[in-house]
Structure formats: structure tokens, C-alpha cells
Amino acid sequence: MSEKRSVKAALLGLGTVGYGVYKVLRRQSPEMEQKLGTAVELKKILVRNLEKAAKKVEDSSVLTTDWQGILKDPEIEIVIELMGGMEPARTCILEAMKAGKHVVTANKDLLAADGKELMDTADSHHCDFFFEAAVAGGIPIIRPLKQCLAGNYISEVMGIINGTTNFILTKMTREGMEFADALALAQKLGYAEADPTADIEGLDAGRKVAILASIAFHSRVTFDDVYTEGITKISARDICYAKEMGYDIKLLGVARQTDSGIEARVHPMMIESAHPLASVNDSYNAVFVVGDAVGDTMFYGRGAGEMPTASAVVGDVFDIVRNLVHGTCGRIGCTCYRNLPVIAMDETANRYFIRMQVENTCGVLAAVAKVLGDNCVSVAQMIQKNVCGEHAEIVLITDRVKERHFRDSLQTFMEMEVIREISSVIRVQS
């Protein structure tokens, strides 16, 4: 082992996760030399408001508003970016790596959009660029995919990767709450933001799917490639039907490698209640990975929050410190050596649950079945329930069919006078 030295780092941002990183680094300080062969010193913390930040730290002399001072400091070897958003985070990361500094980030928005440029910059400057916390908070998944499971051909990565939506769906399932009431509770308890759009519309999960797919299948996938659909149309009635049929409804991120290319999507899905992901409740996350050698594996835990996310960030910092001590930085860079197409959603195949309100007259079921048959959609199950005067509710589940054929059926249904409403459409695990 080389001679011991103190590795100096700078932290950009002292928000929820940044403050968690500050606390974890202080907590780990007594054992750092035993774990890493060197001490780690947080030399500077970049903040917007010095007075506000001073209330959080023991030594306010580490606080600064001067990014250029950090960038030009030759002693600072690691930059921990936790500001979030696209700018100035993107500029800071690129400038840091061009200055020869190693970078840790939790910035999923930036990675999902500009991952290639960031990874290429790290490679060209022989820098470590780690982002374990960007996908599932405290759950290790990036490193396992890049290292522990590197000997596998990964065919599928599927997961619950947004704690807010999982909390909402859990409340709807366990307590029969409607979506609006469950969302209001999530906001009251701090699980959802005042503006929950990124969570409930599937955008947050979509960014994470882009990152996971790129790593799992060694081919670049961006957020724009990922089909996203949220949970705002899920009702307590849908969940009751799902339970009756042996399913649970979860918002899932799905990435699959097929002979035709990569599927990358986020949407609600009915999964069998016996599936391991069905038991993941409240704000917990889980990622289910299928490899040809390892088989089925699942990574489970807290997917967000101050300390779980800080755990992943500090783990990345420690990895970089070990590489610095042993002179092995830059050994694991970009793994996207393929150029696979991303399959359009219309060309994917799924099973579907559909609930509709129809006129309670003879021949309606036959008319519905004919439309589906004319569009190559095979019905696995169809039931008529909740007859009320002139109206009735039809619920059906299809066999696997291409999305475009199913959408053609929906378009025809919406033009039929005997069908009053398409209440719900949910994809079903297949």
C-alpha cells in the first residue's frame, strides 16, 4: 500500500442529501484510515446562503459561494455534486472532470439526458465518475450491474423505483383510498412534493429506467426514449378488481432486452400477488434483475431520503478514495459499447386489463369481442358486473398482443354508441 495521505473533497449543495452526506462523513471519520488507508477531509462546501448553511455545520470556514475557488484548488481531488437539476450542475461536473477531479453525483435528471457526454468526459480525463445514488437511493444497483453481475447477459430489469407512487398505491390497496386522498396524505407526511408531477406522472421513474437500461444492456438509452405513464387514472375500483383476480397494481419501471432491441417504459402494471415486487409496500423500492447465469435477483430497501441516499453517495466517495490510494482511478468507465435500437411502445407486446361502461342490451358482449378479434386481440377473461338499469360494467383481460393492435381496438370502442366510457386500461404482467 502507498503512503497514507489525506484525500480532500468538496461538497456542492447542503440540502437534504448534502447534509446527510456531511453527517455520514463525520460519523465515519474515526474509522476512515482503517477502511480506506487514508483520511477524508471535506475541505469546502458550496452553498447559496452562507448564513443559513452556517447553522448546519460545526465549522463555518468550510462554507463558500465560490465555485471557481473549488475548481482551482489543487488539493481538492473529489467533487460531490448534490445541487440537482441540469444547471449549474452540468457545468460544474464537466469543469471538475476537465480539471482532473473525480466526481460523485446523485443527479438522475442530468444522467438520463447527458450521460454519454459525462461518461466520455470522465474517460478522456481518466476520472472516476460514480452515481450509485441516482437510481434507487440507498439500494445498491449500479455497482452490482457494472461489477457483481458483469458475467451475466441481463435480459430484464424491472422495479418499483419511486417511493411516492408506491406509498400512494399502498394506501389505495390497504385502505381503499382514492388517488386524490392518498396523494394528499403523501404530501402531508412529506412523501410527495407540493408539485408531485414528476412522481405521479412517472417522469422520475422514467429517468431512472434510462440509466438502468443503459448500464444493464450496454447501450445508451436517454429519458426521451422511455415511454412514461403515471398513476393518476388508477382508482380504488381498479385495485379491488385486481385483488379479486389475484393481482396487485404497482407503478413499474421496465427495461427488457429483446431480439428486436430494448424496451424501456414506465407505467402502472397489474402483477401477480405472488411476485416478489407485489410485497414491496409504502415508500420502499425494489429492483428485480434477470440474468442468464444468476437467474432472478431482487435488490430491496429505502429508495430515497436523506440518510439512505447519503449512504450511497459516501459509498461512491469511499470507492474513489480507495482508487486514489492504489492509483487505479478510471478503471470502470462507460460500459455502453453497443448501439441497440429502442423499440417504439406501439411495437411492444403486453396483456391488458380494460374496464368499460356499456349499455345493458343484448349483443354488447359479442360486439366487444368482435372488435377485439378484428384487431388481433384475444380475450383471456371477460366478465359483466355491476348491472344498474340501462348500464353495465364489463371487465376483461386480454392475452399478449401488440400495443398498436390494442390501441386500434380502443379507438373503435370510443366510436361505438353502446360503449359509454372506457374507465380504465392497465397493462398486465406477462
UniProtKB/TrEMBL annotation:
Active site positions, chain numbering: 208
Binding positions (L-homoserine): 193
Chain ranges of the ACT domain: 353-430
Electron transport in keyword set: no
Enzyme Commission number(s): 1.1.1.3
GO molecular function: homoserine dehydrogenase activity; metal ion binding; NADP binding
Cofactor(s) needed for function: a metal cation
PROSITE patterns associated with the record: ACT, HOMOSER_DHGENASE
GO biological process, alphabetically ordered: methionine biosynthetic process; threonine biosynthetic process
Pathway annotation: Amino-acid biosynthesis; L-methionine biosynthesis via de novo pathway; L-homoserine from L-aspartate: step 3/3; Amino-acid biosynthesis; L-threonine biosynthesis; L-threonine from L-aspartate: step 3/5
Keyword NAD: yes
Reactions catalysed, as given in the entry: L-homoserine + NADP(+) = L-aspartate 4-semialdehyde + NADPH + H(+)
UniProt keyword terms in alphabetical order: Amino-acid biosynthesis, Metal-binding, Methionine biosynthesis, NAD, NADP, Oxidoreductase, Sodium, Threonine biosynthesis
Positions contributing to NADPH binding: 108
One Pfam family, short name: Homoserine_dh
SUPFAM superfamilies, A to Z: ACT-like, Glyceraldehyde-3-phosphate dehydrogenase-like, C-terminal domain, NAD(P)-binding Rossmann-fold domains
Family, per entry: Belongs to the homoserine dehydrogenase family.
NCBIfam families associated with the record: PRK06349.1
Descriptive protein name: Homoserine dehydrogenase
Gene source species: Wansuia hejianensis
